[in-house]
Every structure is written in C-alpha cells, then in structure tokens.
C-alpha cells in the first residue's frame, strides 16, 4: 500500500498544504481567491502542527475510528485501503473524533459531519504532497503494509 | 497551480525555445514552472515579513493564526502589501528622474531649449523638496483641488514617501487611510514621471513620430550589436548613440525608450522574452540598467560569451562621454572575439511609427468623434509582460477586440513594443482591423497614422500629456469621459503605481494579474467603492482566474458603454 510520508526535517511550516487542501478539497469554488471568502470557512484536512510537522490521516491498519463508528459511516476503500467518511450517513455523534489517536478528525459545526482526510482518493494524487514546496510530504509504496489485512 | 500551455504568441521566438530546451538553459517559463505552486499567502497579500518576529500569515482557513504577531489582520496585511509595491514603484520613477536630472546638470548635452531646461530642473528640485507647486498648475484645477481636499496632493519626498513607508512599520491606520497614502505616493511618482517627460522634451526637443523597426530580425550579422537593457539615463543613451555612430556599431534596446533624438534604438524584443536576443548569438555587448532587467541574463550570456556592463556601480566611471566610448569599444572588441560564434538571426521584423504626442495629434477631432459617437471610447494599453500569461496574447487580443469595436487605443512604453511586434503600429498595414468609425477618425488624423497610437516610451510622459490635453481641450473632467486604462499583463511595481495614478486622475483601470490584496474583502471594496466615491473611477481587480482575453475585452467594453458598474458621470463630487 502507498503511504504518505511526512519528513519533519524538510517541513518548514509554511502552511501551503493547508491552503491548497482547503482550496482544492474543502472549498466550493476551488479557486483560492474565492475560497478564502467562503462562508462557512473551508476546513483543510491537514494540520501543520507545532512548527515542523504536517499531519493528516494515517489510514491506520487497525483504525480506531472505524471501530468506534456506530453505523458504518467510517469505511475503508477495499482497493486502496484508504479510510473515508461516507458523508450522507454520518449522524455527527463524534465517536470517531474521540477515538482518533492523532486527533485529525474534525467535527464540523456547520455541516454536521466528521471531516477527515481521505488522501484525495478521487483525485489520484494527494494535493498536499503536490503543493509541498520542499517535498516534506510524499507518497511512497511500502511493502510491509499488507493488502491482505483488509 | 497552472502551467502555461503556450509560452509566447511571438513566432520569432519559437525556434529559440526548443534550442534552450536542447541546451538545458532555463528560461523564464521554466523557472516559473519550477516555482509552482507559488505561495498562496503572498499571492493574496496575507503575509508579512516587515519585522523579525515573523514571518507572519493570516490563515484564511484556521482560527488560530488569523492575526500576525504584532496584531495585523488580513485587511492590514493586504493593504500594506499594496502600499509596499507602490512605494517601491514610486522610487523607480524618482530614480529615473534623478539620474536624468544629474546628467543634464552636468552639461554634457547641449539642451535644445536652455531656459526651459533650467526651469524644469528647478521644478525637479521643488518636487523633491515640497511637492512642486508649479507642476501642479499643469494638472486640471478641479483635480488638484480634489487631491488637496482628500489630502493626497504630493508634498515632497520626505512628506510622502518617508511617511508612507512608516505606515508599514506600525500604527493604527485603517484600510482607507493606508490606501490614500498609497495614492499620495503614486501621485508623487506621476509628477516625477511627467517631469521626466518634460525635461526630455526641453533637452531633446518635442517628440515627432519616427519610424522604428521592431523585433529580432533587425539584429545585424556583419557589424557589432550593442543592446541596451532597461530604462537608462537618456544622456548616457545619447552618448552611446553618438559613439556608436562613429564606430559603426549597431545599437538596439530591450525595455528601454526607443527614441532619444536624434537617435532611435529599435526594440529587439519585449520584457517577457528578454533572454532570447542573446540566444541568437548576434549580441556582442549588453549595457544593463536595473529596472526591468532580469538577473538571469548573466547566466544565459555566459553560454554565448556575451559581456554585460552595468551602467551603475559604486565605483563606476561617472563621465557619460568616457563611459559611452568605453562601452562601444568593448562592443567592437567583443565582436572580434566572438567571430566564431554562429549568428542565428530570425527574419521576423516589423516597422512601427512611434512617438506621437498631443502636440502632433488633432485632439479636437478625437474629442469630436467621441462626442458624435464615431468612436465608443478610448482605451489606454499599458504594462509589460507577465509569465503567468501566454506572452503578448492578452494584449494583442484586447487590442484586436477594441479596434474592431471602434475604441481608440493608445499605448505607451513596453505595451507599444508588444503591439508593434504584431504590426499594430505599422502605418502601412493600418486601419485593416479597425471598425468603420475608428478608421474614419484615424484617416482624418493623417495619412500615415497606424491603428494604435504610441505616445512615447516609458521615459516620456505621453499618456499623461494626452489625458491632460483631453481634459483641457474638452473642458470636462477625465472621469466623465468613456476612457479606461488596461494592464493585461502587468508585472512591475512601477506599473502598479501607473495604474494607481490613473485611478486618482479619474480613469478607471483594469489590472491583471490580481494585486496581492485579494485576501481582504475590505481592501477590494476600498479599491472599487471608495475610489469611485473619491475619484469617480474604479481600480478593477478581477479575481476570476480562468477568464479568456476576449471575455476581458467584452467586460471592459461594457464598462465603456456604461452598462457595467455605475459611473458617476456628470455628477458632482461627493
């Protein structure tokens, strides 16, 4: 399976990944100039933590969010192994928010669904990795992640 | 993150693009792609590096960092980004003026009109000291009165620029207040630019329409070619012209004023492709100023062994005579040294008639045509190139659309060179693409009039003269005319300043690409509504990124017809 590697030595904390995630994934208009004026604010799925770490969903092998979800809204794509929120069925109970060990699931107050990175599973390539000017974020194939686990 | 699919509209350059790719030389387009994605915070004006506690950003999507360390919010950040550009741009005009004035004072060139030259030099001093009382008299009374009332009338470098620069250092100035400081600074730039033009007129005589060749085809194979890059002091240019004539050296220019009577320096190309002339192998020496000159020239020049001489330096020769002689001699030596380097000169060349001014145009006829509805409006085309657009395409498409729809186009500086490359300034092929009303007007102005009127290079004040003469002849304020300024491919801070003073004079301005202010809705409103209230004109910053040039043209034409945002035509000042 492919994993998104975060190299904290290369991360300069420039927040570009947040900006592009907010524009390309979270906004309605998909244009930076317009996205920044949208109400409610687009919520990026990646968080630049502290000074030098861009954190997004790790798509855990044993995902606590999936276990915590009472109605199967949190699902895993069998093809790619990516964990995503099936928004129409989300009941906003925030169990996943409590269960996530990384704290990357955001309870959206405006839309009443859990917001979480799905690593741009419909776009082919994660926008945060594409936008990262120092390549601190990059997609890499990991042999030791077994597909059969899913 | 958008790549430019087609790099340039100029066919002369195509072979060189593939040549550069073969030789692995990075050109401006490659470097732009390398920079993508550009910083979104800087692009929208939401970043600041003014102190060492930062750098700070105002995050549009997160609540934790909406304010900078010192407390600047998005509105302050955005308007200060604009102010920073304006201050820098104003200094460009002041620098050019001071260079020129110093050259004239040294007495190396005998001025055409001695008394007027001395008078202008005094005015230059007065502008720098107290904002030039005499110069303001040249502007329409109601305009200067209005500027006094708002408090943006120039009061000298210290009161305008120094004070404006301190707005970046701190204080609690609001968006509108900071914007007015930017306007004040830009008006100082306007007057400096205007003085530069009138000094040039008094030293070298009034501009007359002159035939100039344009594009790479004019480089010569058999004689040394010396290229002037960037707006240099006209005195030095004249001296270079004199020395080169004696020695038979061919002098051309890039991003420099082509007309310094009695010499003309044909533009080899325009801003966007300034590295290409070197790649022909036919350039033997480059004399480079600062403004408009890309530092990349040095690297490209190494491949073709072209020496580059800067005009300014802390310990450079100050005497323009000797400096010019040295440069021309070096060009000759370099020509001999570079004999083995093949010269690959494309055949593209165009002829252009440049250097009109209100003095050799019948302003009454133009205003008559405007009043009778023969022409639908006047568009000022200005600005250089921006790598974010296909080179020249935006400018050329706008010009075509305007001409077709009976809008008189005037241009100046780099925009003229761009348009000249495509034959818009050629008096023989004129009037072909023009609408009926417009071609009638152009024919009545004279037999040898091209479809677009060039009002002089970046160092002339032709466009300002034209506007002032319009206001004077028509006895109407500029905001009441259907006239717009367009910067379809703007780039440098000096162009921002030009756009700002156009707005302050009452001419609505369209500016692409977006200024770094789009992160703040308040600043956007200030540039539209606030400017409309104060000056009767609007600074249009259009945020639609995927707008075709033809769509831009129809947007502007709607504005000229008065269909778009309400204009204050004919109404008293608020």
Explain this structure.
The complex is a heterodimer of chains A (150) and B (574). With 150 residues, chain A is an alpha+beta fold. Chain A has two domains: 81 residues, Alpha-Beta Plaits, CATH 3.30.70; 56 residues, Alpha-Beta Plaits (2-Layer Sandwich). Chain A is built from five helices and eight strands, in the order βααββαββαββαβ. In chain A, β2 and β3 form a beta hairpin. Chain A starts with a strand and ends in a 9-residue tail after the last strand. Chain B has a six-stranded parallel beta sheet with strand order 14-13-12-15-16-17, with helices on both faces. Chain B has a five-stranded parallel beta sheet with strand order 8-5-4-9-10, with helices on both faces. The longest helix of chain B has 32 residues. Helices cover 45% and strands 11% of the residues of chain B. Chain B folds into four domains: 33 residues, no CATH class; 158 residues, Substrate Binding Domain Of Dnak, Chain:A, Domain 2; 122 residues, Rossmann fold, CATH 3.40.50.2030; 211 residues, Rossmann fold (3-Layer(aba) Sandwich). Chain B has 574 residues and is of the alpha/beta class. At the A-B interface, α1 and α2 of A face α3 of B.
Helix content of chain A: 10-25%
CATH architect. name of the largest domain in chain B: 3-Layer(aba) Sandwich
- The dominant shape of chain B is globular
State the end-to-end distance of chain B: 43 Å
Derived from helix and strand composition plus strand pairing, the structural class of chain B reads alpha/beta
Spell out the helices and strands of chain A N to C: EHHEEHEEHEEHE
**CATH third-tier fold name of the largest domain in chain A:** Alpha-Beta Plaits
In the CATH hierarchy, the third-tier topology of the largest domain in chain B is known as Rossmann fold
* CATH uppermost class of the largest domain in chain A: Alpha Beta
Unreliable stretches of chain B, pLDDT < 50, 5 or more residues? 566-574
What radius of gyration of chain A results from the CA coordinates? Answer: 15 Å
CATH architecture descriptor of the largest domain in chain A: 2-Layer Sandwich
Tally of alpha and pi helices of chain B:
21
Strand fraction of chain B equals 5-15%
């Amino acid at each position: 399976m492919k994993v998104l590697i975060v190299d904290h030595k290369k991360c300069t904390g420039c927040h570009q990944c947040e900006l592009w995630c907010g524009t390309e994934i979270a906004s309605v208009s998909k244009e930076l100039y317009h996205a920044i004026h949208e109400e409610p604010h687009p919520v990026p799925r990646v968080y630049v933590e502290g000074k030098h770490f861009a954190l997004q969903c790790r798509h855990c092998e044993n995902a606590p969010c999936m276990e915590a979800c009472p109605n199967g809204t949190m699902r895993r794509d069998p093809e790619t192994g990516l964990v995503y929120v099936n928004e129409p069925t989300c009941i906003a109970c925030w169990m996943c928010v409590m269960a996530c060990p990384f704290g990357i699931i955001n309870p959206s107050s405006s839309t009443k669904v859990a917001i979480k990175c799905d690593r741009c599973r419909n776009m082919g390539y994660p926008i945060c990795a594409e936008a990262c000017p120092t390549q601190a974020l990059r997609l890499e194939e990991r042999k030791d992640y077994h597909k059969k686990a899913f | 993150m958008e790549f430019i699919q087609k790099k340039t509209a100029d066919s002369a350059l195509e072979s060189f693009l593939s040549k550069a790719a073969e030789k692995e030389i990075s050109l401006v387009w490659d470097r732009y792609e390398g920079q993508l994605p550009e910083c979104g915070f800087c692009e929208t004006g939401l970043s600041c590096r003014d102190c060492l506690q930062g750098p700070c950003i105002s995050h549009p999507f997160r609540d934790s960092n909406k304010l900078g360390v010192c407390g600047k919010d998005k509105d302050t950040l955005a308007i200060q980004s604009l102010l920073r550009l304006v201050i820098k741009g104003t200094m460009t005009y002041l620098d050019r003026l001071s260079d020129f004035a110093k050259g004239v004072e040294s007495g190396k060139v005998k001025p055409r009109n001695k008394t007027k030259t001395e008078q202008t030099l005094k005015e230059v001093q007065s502008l720098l000291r107290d904002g030039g009382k005499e110069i303001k008299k040249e502007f329409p009374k109601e305009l200067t009165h209005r500027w006094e009332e708002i408090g943006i009338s120039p009061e000298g470098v210290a009161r305008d620029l120094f004070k404006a620069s301190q707005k970046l250092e701190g204080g609690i100035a609001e968006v509108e207040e900071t914007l007015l400081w930017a306007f004040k600074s830009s008006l100082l730039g306007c007057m400096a630019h205007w003085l530069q033009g009138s000094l040039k007129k008094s030293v070298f005589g009034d501009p007359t329409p002159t035939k100039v060749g344009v594009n790479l085809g004019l480089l010569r194979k058999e004689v040394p070619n010396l290229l002037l890059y960037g707006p240099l002091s006209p005195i030095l240019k004249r001296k270079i012209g004199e020395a080169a004539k004696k020695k038979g050296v061919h002098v051309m220019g890039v991003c420099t004023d082509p007309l310094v009577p009695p010499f003309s320096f044909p533009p080899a190309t325009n801003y966007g492709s300034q590295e290409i002339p070197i790649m022909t192998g036919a350039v033997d020496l480059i004399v480079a100023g600062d403004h408009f000159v890309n530092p990349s020239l040095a690297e490209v020049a190494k491949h073709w062994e072209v020496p580059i001489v800067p005009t300014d330096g802390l310990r450079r020769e100050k005497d323009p005579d000797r400096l010019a002689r040295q440069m021309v001699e070096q060009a000759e030596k370099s020509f001999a040294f570079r004999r083995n380097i093949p010269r690959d000169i494309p055949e593209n060349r165009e002829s252009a008639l440049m250097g009109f001014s209100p003095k050799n145009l019948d302003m009454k006829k133009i205003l008559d045509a405007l009043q009778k509805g023969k022409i639908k409006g006047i568009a000022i085309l200005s600005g250089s190139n921006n790598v974010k657009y296909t080179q020249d395409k935006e400018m050329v498409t706008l010009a075509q659309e305007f001409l077709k729809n009976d809008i008189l186009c005037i241009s100046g500086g780099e925009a003229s060179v761009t348009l000249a490359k495509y034959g818009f300034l050629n008096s023989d092929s004129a009037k072909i693409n023009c609408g009926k009303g417009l071609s009638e007007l152009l024919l009545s102005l004279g037999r040898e009039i091209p479809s677009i009127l060039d009002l002089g290079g970046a160092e002339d004040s032709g466009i300002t003269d034209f506007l002032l003469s319009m206001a004077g002849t028509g006895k109407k304020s500029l905001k009441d005319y259907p006239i717009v300024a367009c910067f379809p491919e703007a780039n440098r801070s000096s162009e921002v300043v030009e756009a700002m003073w156009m707005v302050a004079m009452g001419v609505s301005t369209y500016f692409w690409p977006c200024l770094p202010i789009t992160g703040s809705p308040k600043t956007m409103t200030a540039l539209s509504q606030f400017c409309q209230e104060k000056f009767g004109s609007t600074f249009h910053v259009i945020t639609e990124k995927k707008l075709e040039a033809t769509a831009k043209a129809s947007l502007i034409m709607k504005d000229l017809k008065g269909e778009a945002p309400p204009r204050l035509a004919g109404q008293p000042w608020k």
